[in-house]
């Protein structure tokens, strides 16, 4: 009987702890996120969605920008998971590489711009807690996360675009061989 009581107390305790965490977020980071999201939406409205679309099309013209600037803008302005819709500006052969770059950037952007992916904030805050416990500033960590993130998404974009091109060539060759046979 004692076991069932402890089990029930542990079970409800888990939800109570979740409630405490939720209230901490509600009085801490959530108001900041709401203000940031409002600010980003206001900028999009002020600049104009058409201009944002033209900028997206221009920023995919060059290889380096396609896998650095473009995913950064997508994640910053549209946040996760809407950022992946920026892929519509790309030809089919570049969409997998863009997705790989964008999905790889949703964590590194969190330190500087938490509105971009609030779900990843828990990971960053866990790391940040250790840094602040050491008495160090979070600014350099956030900037390093961001810079390393941009380098990683460039590499991932290049590699994924190369792999995609090879796979598409192989598929086309197989179709030609089947058509000839």
Automatic annotation (TrEMBL):
It comes from the Bacteria. Keywords: Membrane, Transmembrane, Transmembrane helix. The keyword DNA-binding does not apply. One of its GO terms (biological process) is phosphoenolpyruvate-dependent sugar phosphotransferase system. The chain crosses the membrane at residues 22-44, 64-84, 141-163. InterPro entries: PTS_IID_sorb (IPR004699). One of its GO terms (cellular component) is membrane. The keyword Transmembrane applies. This is PTS sorbitol transporter subunit IIC.
């Amino acid at each position: 009987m004692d076991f069932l009581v402890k089990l029930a107390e542990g079970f409800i305790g888990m939800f109570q702890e979740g409630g405490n965490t939720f209230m901490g977020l509600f009085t801490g980071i959530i108001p900041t996120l709401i203000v940031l999201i409002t600010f980003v939406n206001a900028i999009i409205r002020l600049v104009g969605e058409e201009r944002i679309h033209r900028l997206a099309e221009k920023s995919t013209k060059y290889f380096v920008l396609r896998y650095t600037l473009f995913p950064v803008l997508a994640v910053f302005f549209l946040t996760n998971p809407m950022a992946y819709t920026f892929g519509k500006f790309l030809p089919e052969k570049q969409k997998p590489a863009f997705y790989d770059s964008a999905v790889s950037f949703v964590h590194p952007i969190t330190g500087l711009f938490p509105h971009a992916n609030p779900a990843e904030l828990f990971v960053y805050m866990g790391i940040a807690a250790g840094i602040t416990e050491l008495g160090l500033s979070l600014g350099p960590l956030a900037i390093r996360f961001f810079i390393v993130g941009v380098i990683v998404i460039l590499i991932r974009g290049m590699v994924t675009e190369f792999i995609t091109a090879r796979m598409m060539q192989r598929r086309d060759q197989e179709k030609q061989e089947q058509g000839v046979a």
